[in-house]
Amino acid sequence: MGRLNMTATIVSTVLNRENYKDWSFRMKTYFLAKDLWDIVEGTVKKPPEGEEHKAWKKKDAKALYAIQNSCGDDNYPLIKYSTTAREAWQDLSEGLKRDERPQDESAHKPVGEAYPKESALEEGLSVTGGHDESDESVETLESIHNTFAKYVKSNDWDNAINFLRQHPRLRSARFRWDGTALHYAINERCSVRIIQQLVELMDNGHLEITDRFGYTALSDLIVLSPESVEVAECMVKKNPNLLTILPRWSQKALVVVAQGNAKGERMAHSLYSLTPSEKINVIDAAQLISDSFRLQRFG
Fold first, then answer.
1. Is 174-299 in CATH node 1.10.1780.10?
2. Which of the four pLDDT bands, split at 50, 70 and 90, describes residue 250?
């Protein structure tokens, strides 16, 4: 008998950054039909041993495999290190769930305002030598942006960083999902060296830039690379206000987001020491304690 084609039996919608609500609803229906939702939701605890433990592991593996095969290649890095279906489900929710609005806010905007050219998002690019951007032609400014975009999108980070040093206005340039080059590097899981250099080139204001989902680069780092504790500490020390800028869809303190990540123990400890106590509300504190028991993180 041939191997079961899971991708043909899950859902027809492949997850992307725009359809999380629809995708998750369809996936939940699938899990309910296959008697797997209690595993994904976490209402059934893993038995310690014996046949019940084996049965739980088998169901969890089926659910995890289903999530992996329907989340899309672009989102797989969000769950690459998830070891259970519940962790994968939560990691995707943390990474993709958006604030619910009745309709696209851009629907009633003029087309030029809703969909500006990339060069218009730069707040006016400057060139080397301290020239005012008004002295440069539109073609020159677009050429500068296009060169930088080429370096970033091809992951040629040494050239991108050198170019950014020459043209500091590019710090506000927007790329994938309206994020900065720093967002892009974090999403691409670049090395700590590259991300650290980009952080050093950003000023406080540029570190506060959010992408279209309300994520700062720090928020992305916590979700995607929770092991990069030193980079997060550098960002927070440079701009402590980053701890108060939360994604639109969630008002969880960032330390809570880190704690809920399967790989986020060290990150959570660090952010807890950096987060002012008044920024952690009762719900956040309860979640921290709950996750501590769930993930067996004590101390």
1. no
2. low
